[in-house]
Each structure stands twice: as C-alpha cells, then as structure tokens.
Amino acid sequence: MAFTFDLLDMFHQLTLQGKINMYDFFLAIEHKTDNTGLFKLPPHYKQFAVIIREWQLLQMLKHVGCSHDPTGIEATAPGALAVECPACPRPGYNMLDYDDLMEDDRYAAEMMLAVDAKFRLKLKDRKIKDIELTPGWAYFVEEDKYQKVLRNHLSQPELSSCNSQFSMLTKVNMLKMTGKLSITDLQKGEKYVTMDYIILSTLAVYGVLLWLQLSYDIACQ
Fold first, then answer.
1. pLDDT (mean) for 134-145
2. Could you give the CA distance from residue 188 to residue 37 in angstroms, rounded to a whole number?
3. Nearest to 199 by CA among 114, 85, 78, 106
4. Strongest mean pLDDT among 15-29, 112-126, 164-178
5. How many C-beta atoms lie closer than 10 Å to residue 182's C-beta?
6. Is residue 85 part of a domain?
7. Are residues 30 and 119 in the same domain?
8. 108 and 210: one domain?
9. Residue 199's CB: how many other CB atoms inside 10 A?
10. Residue-range definition of the domain harbouring residue 154
11. Do 207 and 158 meet the contact criterion of CB atoms below 8 Å apart?
C-alpha cells in the first residue's frame, strides 16, 4: 500500500480551496477506480487518514526549514510552525526596529492581545489517546506542560472583587482567538489558570515587548 505525493497534495489543495472532506475525497477516488460497484476495493480509508496528517506535518516542518537542522525536528522552537500574519506589525521584520522608530510612531509596534474562552467546540470523549504531532510547535500549547500546571493549580479557588450583577464571568462565555501558542482545551470551565497559561505562553514566544495592550472580558474579576 502506498500513496503518491501528487495524491496527497491534490487532497490538501482541494480541502483548502473547495472545503472537501476526507471521506468524500476518498470515495471519489474509489469511484474513479470502479464506478460500477462490481469490484471489492481494499479498505484503505483509515490508512489514508493517518498518512495525510503525517504528510501535512512534514510539509509544515519543511516550510520552516526544519529539514536543514542537524539536530532534527526535536529542536523545533515553540510556535515555529504557526503561520505569521503578514499585516501584523513586527519590528525588524515588516517595520523598523524599536530603536529606529520615531517617538511618535512607536505606538504602531504595540502588541494587542484579546483573550476569551469559547464553548462552541465540543467533542464527545471517546477515550482515544491521540498522538501529539506538534507539541507546542504551532497554535496549541504543549499538552504535558499544560496538564502539569493544571494539576498544581486547577483546584485553587478563584477570588472575585466584582460586585456587578452583570458579571461577565457568569453571564457570557464566547471566544475567537488566534496566534502562536494561543489555544488550549478548557478544563472545568473558564479558569484563570488556563487563561494565564496561554497568555504567558504567547508572550514568551514573542520575547521582549515595549508596549502591550491586553483585553479580557472578565479581567475585573
């Protein structure tokens, strides 16, 4: 059993541009092989599902130059596989360095982060232990380190100094967030330990910042 690079690349392009799912793509390949249904074709769908994920991982590593690293992919830096926003200001990359900016223009180099939690992505727990192919290399934080922090702090009671009857902590729960190491799974609801971890993980990747603007709907808690 083998899958050609042309086949893997074709599915990758179709799923990005045409939003075609893996099952329909594989079914189309089967119909192209035998559209009569008279022949029993080998069931290779599960193998294809595994190999396409591995191929996409190799493409991500290739795009950031990991194939030229003598230490291998283990040396991949946190967040290195995340696709950078070309429009976001980054001193030294698409704008002048901090020190070279005029005093009146330095506000443009300010990092602005918006933090929230999202409860719309829910999957039934099927007791499946997925192998983490990109441990902290892209958008999700490294699971082992994250779980270690949760074990030590998740049970801590959260203090609140907000007396408003319109408290966002109990009234609203929504989120959309992107960026390096900016996503993780919620454990027992929206906890400060979870939000603190992803904020610090993101800031650690970007290094030293002169200005930071952070917004969080329940920061007053």
1. 87
2. 48
3. 114
4. 15-29
5. 19
6. no
7. no
8. yes
9. 17
10. 98-216
11. no
Residues 109 and 165 both lie in one domain: yes
Burial 66-105 (b: 16+ CB within 10 A, else e): beeeeeeeeebebbbbbeeeeeeeebeeeeeeeeebeeee
Domain count, the chain: 2
Residue 221 is classified by DSSP as: -
Q: What span, in angstroms and rounded, lies between the C-alpha atoms of 218 and 210?
A: 25
Tokens of 175: 């989120």
Q: Would you state the pLDDT for residue 176?
A: 45
The amino acid occupying position 177 is M
Domain assignment of residue 208, yes or no: yes
Q: What is the pTM of this model?
A: 0.69
Higher per-residue confidence, 102 vs 138:
138
Count, residues in the chain: 221
- Residue 32 in tokens: 């192209």
Q: Is residue 57 part of a domain?
A: yes
